[in-house]
Amino acid sequence: MNDLITLSAVELNGLYVNLQEKYEGYITQKLKLDMSRGKPSPEQLDLSMGMLDLLKSDDNLKSADGMDCRNYGGLDGIPEAKELFAHILEVSPKEVIIGGSSSLSMMHDTVLRLLLHGAGENEIPWGKLPTVKFLCPSPGYDRHFAICEQFNIEMVIINMLKDGPDMEQVEKLVSEDESIKGMWCVPKYSNPDGITYSDEVVDRLASMKTKARDFRIIWDDAYTLHHLNNTPDKLKNMLATCKAAGNPDRVLMFTSTSKISFSGSGVAAMSASENNLNFFRKQMAIQSIGPDKINQLRHVRFFKNLDVIQEHMKKHAAIIKPKFDVVLDILDTELSGTQIASWNKPNGGYFISLNTLDNCAKAVVSMAAEAGVTLTKAGATFPYGRDPHDKNIRIAPSYPSLTELRTAIEILCLCVQMVSIKKLLAEGNNN
Amino acid sequence: MNDLITLSAVELNGLYVNLQEKYEGYITQKLKLDMSRGKPSPEQLDLSMGMLDLLKSDDNLKSADGMDCRNYGGLDGIPEAKELFAHILEVSPKEVIIGGSSSLSMMHDTVLRLLLHGAGENEIPWGKLPTVKFLCPSPGYDRHFAICEQFNIEMVIINMLKDGPDMEQVEKLVSEDESIKGMWCVPKYSNPDGITYSDEVVDRLASMKTKARDFRIIWDDAYTLHHLNNTPDKLKNMLATCKAAGNPDRVLMFTSTSKISFSGSGVAAMSASENNLNFFRKQMAIQSIGPDKINQLRHVRFFKNLDVIQEHMKKHAAIIKPKFDVVLDILDTELSGTQIASWNKPNGGYFISLNTLDNCAKAVVSMAAEAGVTLTKAGATFPYGRDPHDKNIRIAPSYPSLTELRTAIEILCLCVQMVSIKKLLAEGNNN
């Protein structure tokens, strides 16, 4: 494609007429394509159906420590589930608490506990302070930001660089401002950029000096096993790094099988120092007698160990990878060289992050919607739903079929071009 | 048995020596009998094992409205689960929200929402008020009280009468004190008394004038289908009564299948006015993408409708009833006529509530523990774990076998007699 920035107004107008014709062709098709959320496709969910045959009426539902998984008890999970997640997160089983089916709920409840009870026995509950701030590497995950908004935690945007959050910015802020109590991180195949934090970033996060002594990092390792190809990213172990840096209580790590087994019916877990977990357990005991142990058993008996899960994840990749390829191919064909858009090529995760020219994302998402393509709301990847440059669009390729995806991305590219041309013409720099 | 109150000191001493001998016989047996919690027995859990065979790898896991239950979505439950719980609670499906596996967690989170966000869009969050009080009919459920204690909600003891909480006391307090914002109720087969609220009590709770306009009753209908015999109690529909009384938003009802299917792996639900539910849904959407829909489907396909559940509950009763009978028989043989203890004979639920002479319960529970019988901690059935008369002991007969139960209750009766005799002798009224 041509570099649109250098085209004359006449050329741009001519191009626009062509694109407009194609766009109107799509309008008449009354399409209905949803690419708004990072949901697995039915084919991916089929991969775990064997799990349903595993526990039968004549099976023994005892856990490794002899607990009847059908009865009350087991506040923080059965031993074999802890062990499995310990392998996934590269920690000790003693550093694992198993939750219900949602790591989002675990993170929500954890933030709430920090607000209500503080970060430890002798710490002030954050909710009693006049201001509490969280650092929010952005673009990021809208549901993280929604938790902060819900509880009046002020969000501070941190720029995402190629190897993770801008650490200069982070280190300066946390060293100066005591009201900065927390930070959201999706450290591997980040949502939506697909970036994995470099070892240096992990080291600096673990060892940086923070003015707040009860500073906590919510480490949402949602995509830790979700590789797309044979050159997966490697993330340095954050809990081990924090311990080595003398800050063992700094990180609270979360993951789940939501995009491994069944979304919404998986098993979630958190990992942190034993000190942190002991503190949280006391509060958990008030909220619950314990999460669903039968579902834990079902997962452990199906997945057995990390090797089996990794093989399972290759099957997921075999389904998702072609979808990412379609998106990247079309973006390449339609937009590369135009200077009006840039995007990432992740090794894993669930998203492709597309950046348009400034002030174009909202218009693009709205134009695509008119042609029947639902994208994640523009701005959603930033705190308060406000993208300061209005340029980031999150593409979630996993759910639609390849055919639907092709059409949807072609429409998206059309919209990016048309909105950009309008902008260029309005700015009048093209002569 | 003789009326101990009227025995002479010499007679009491003689009796004590006999009892002491029996007690020491038990000590040498080094028993280990746990009657501390209301847990179903393995035989009861076996009743639902067929549920595990229901969803298989080649099954369609779509809900009634076409949702793929294996994927994200469905914040408040699938339609068929709402319908089933609507029948259980005698409400409309629109008045039902399905939760995860724990109604305790739903109640905990609901109280927290009321503290953080208030009882409606324009209401003051209770947590912003200097004092918040809950009425606590007592003896009651320790986990309810633990929630209040956790969040600094002041608990006010309400006496339990034969037909429910003392309504004179309740009406007076709520009409005078605006800081009374809530009330805990286990309205059917109450924990631990096994009392079902009379129609008059339900009417008065629904229609009483409260100084706090955002007063809420947490209606924990945990034992709604848990009858022990063919003369079950009937509870008047509280949501309908509140609506009729012009207070549709007053009640928040909860139930679950924890003691119907699997404890900890069941399905929980809440019911309230649509107005209340709409308000809570907004906050729930921040905490979760939705509870486990596969488990909902499993339950709905197994239980089908209310009739099937009711038949299923008869099988539970057939297992539990003989256990209640053993306890009641032994209490009758050992303690009736002694004037040192009284107890209830419930038509359902999970507990027998035993009342000793004042200031004896702690000593009895501790003596029983020394002989290897673990009972619910004395005081646990009252706010802050403090029974003002130190006389209530909760007996949970469901879990132990009949043989274990017989031994445990014989030991319990021995302890009640010995502690009572010591008390009577110390008081010196027996000449």
Element layout with pairings:
2 copies of one chain form a homodimer.
Chain A lengths: L8 H20 L4 E3 L6 H5 L32 H11 L6 E3 L4 H15 L15 E6 L3 H9 L3 E8 L2 E2 L1 H10 L3 E6 L13 H9 L8 E5 L17 H7 L6 E6 L11 E4 L2 H14 L5 H11 L2 H30 L5 E3 L8 E5 L4 H10 L2 E3 L16 E4 L6 H26 L4
Parallel strand pairs in A: 1-12, 3-4, 3-6, 6-7, 7-8
Antiparallel strand pairs in A: 2-9, 4-5, 8-9, 10-11, 11-13
Please tell me about this protein's structure.
The structure is a homodimer of 431-residue chains. Chain A has 431 residues and is of the alpha/beta class. Chain A is 41% helix and 13% strand. Chain A contains 13 helices and 13 strands. In chain A, the strands form 3 sheets. Chain A has an 8-stranded mixed sheet with strand order 2-9-8-7-6-3-4-5, with helices on both faces. A 3-stranded antiparallel sheet of chain A has the order 10-11-13, covered by helices on one side. A two-stranded parallel ribbon of chain A has the order 1-12. The radius of gyration of chain A is 23 Å and the shape is globular. The two termini of chain A are 19 Å apart. The mean pLDDT of chain A is 97. At the A-B interface, α4, α5, α9 and α10 of A face α4, α5, α9 and α10 of B.
Shape of chain A: globular
The multimeric state of the shown protein is homodimer
Low-confidence runs of chain A: none
Question: Quick one: how many beta strands of chain A?
Answer: 13
Structural class label of chain A: alpha/beta
Number of helix segments of chain A?
A: 13
How widely separated are the two ends of chain A? 19 Å
Q: Which strands sit side by side, in order, in the main sheet of chain A?
A: 2-9-8-7-6-3-4-5
Largest interface: A-B, 53 and 53 residues
Helix content of chain A: 40-55%
Biggest pleated-sheet summary of chain A? 8 strands, mixed
Report the order of strands and helices of chain A. HEHHEHEHEEHEHEHEEHHHEEHEEH
Radius of gyration of CA atoms of chain A, rounded to a whole number: 23 Å
Q: Into which percentage range does the β-strand content of chain A fall? A: 5-15%
Mean pLDDT across all amino acids of chain A: 97
